[in-house]
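Write out a record, fold above all:
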Amino acid sequence: MPADVARITDLRSLRSYIEMTICERNELEVGAFRMTERILLRGGTACGIYFCMHGPRSVKLTAIWETDRNTILFYGSNGQRQHRTQLTADTSLTATTA
């Protein structure tokens, strides 16, 4: 699966990129559905953020930003990975800024 590369400078841009990508890949209107997020912990330390878009007919589309690899993984409603985006090395976000 080829990965996109993106440069994201802040948490607001990360949220926006994830929402736009989920909507584009699933033919949804941007801003029409609620998105929630949770900080993921490993051994008590933040290791990523889980994003969930609550779509039509109770469909849930998700993305996970892995801070270790600085990668965003996108998943479809069936739980299978649909897409991957590699963030550039100069992206300086931390999961604790959520």
Observations:
- The longest strand covers residues 45-54.
- Residues 4-97 form one domain.
